Amino acid sequence: MDWTDEQQSRFDNLCEHELVGILTGVEQQELDMLMAVLIEAADEALLPAITRLQHEQGVLELRLQQRQCGNEELVKRLHQQVKMMAELR
After folding, report:
1. Model confidence pTM above 0.70
2. DSSP H helical segments within 1-89, as ranges?
3. Closest CA to 18 of 28, 7, 8
4. What are the tens digits of pLDDT across the range 42-59?
5. CB atoms within 10 A of CB 84
6. Helix (H, G, I), strand (E, B) or coil at 11
7. What are phi and psi of 4, to 5 degrees?
8. Which of 7, 27, 32, 61 sits between 20 and 30 A of 79, alpha carbons compared?
């Protein structure tokens, strides 16, 4: 999206009108339209980053599961060794 200086100026002006309570119905519609354009642009800009972060989260969750399984195996072995040590005594 190419957000122009003119659009930014108009957006700023409409926001000022809204803040001081003098925004007309037509201006409200124009402000809503400009906000929709900005939101769409933000969504488009953020989508690749969100997708990348979701992928990274999946990878991290898999690693966590693998480590948890490894930890459980280590705990089992430790208990076996403690049991063997007790039997040897």
Report:
1. no
2. 5-20, 25-88
3. 28
4. 899 899 999 999 999 999
5. 10
6. helix
7. -90, 165
8. 61
